[in-house]
Write a structure and sequence with these properties.
- One of its GO terms (molecular function) is large ribosomal subunit rRNA binding.
- By secondary structure, the chain is α+β, with helices and mostly antiparallel strands.
- The protein is built from 6 helices and 5 strands.
- The chain has helices at about 5-20, 35-45, 55-65, 90-100, 125, 130-175, and strands spanning about 25-30, 50-55, 80-85, 105-115, 115-120.
- It is elongated, with a radius of gyration of 27 Å.
């Protein structure tokens, strides 16, 4: 069924808006994946804050024009599913990587971050990025370390005084 001009414009505008607010993009070939598996993937994408869409390559090329994902144009060959990470830069990469492990027909083609196109072999670089909560936890522990050391140092002074007094007491007992 042919898509009308107005529908095409709406699709391009929607994908352009998603690309404008996205942190990273992952492209994959979905040939051979069942409809049930695709439904599961779409559900997981919604839960993880990932914009997932199958769009014709010509429309995708128009939609990413003027965004930092313009670099993906050369990877748009054959059937392509497009995933944009909206909240967490590694969310789409983790989602599609895990999905590809379960579905042998699903193949990751490329990914893009910060206007740079990366090959499918670089998926681990993006997938292993910590989530926002993990990054905040790491930041909090780094910020807490100097305070913890300072408290230990302050606590050590009275402990040393107590040990010295106890040692003097023990010496006096032995001498008496």
């Amino acid at each position: 069924m042919a898509i009308g001009l107005e529908d095409k414009k709406a699709i391009v505008a929607e994908v352009n808006e998603a690309a404008g607010g996205a942190l990273s993009a992952v492209l994959a070939d979905y040939r051979g994946v069942t409809a049930n598996d695709m439904t599961t993937l779409r559900k997981q994408a919604r839960e993880n804050g990932v914009y997932l869409r199958v769009v014709r390559n010509t429309l995708t090329k128009l939609a990413v024009g003027g965004t930092e994902f313009e670099c993906i144009k050369e990877a748009l060959v054959g059937p392509t599913i497009l995933a944009f990470s909206m909240e967490d830069p590694g969310a789409a990469a983790r989602l599609l990587k895990d999905f590809a492990k379960e579905n042998k027909d699903f193949e990751i083609k490329a990914l893009a971050v910060g206007g740079e196109l990366l090959g499918a072999e670089q998926i681990d670089r993006l997938a292993k990025l910590p989530t926002r909560d993990q990054a905040l936890g790491m930041l909090a522990s780094v910020m807490q370390a100097p305070i913890t050391k300072l408290v230990r140092t302050f606590n050590e002074v009275p402990s040393k005084v107590t040990r010295v007094v106890a040692a003097v007491r023990d010496q006096k007992k032995e001498a008496a």
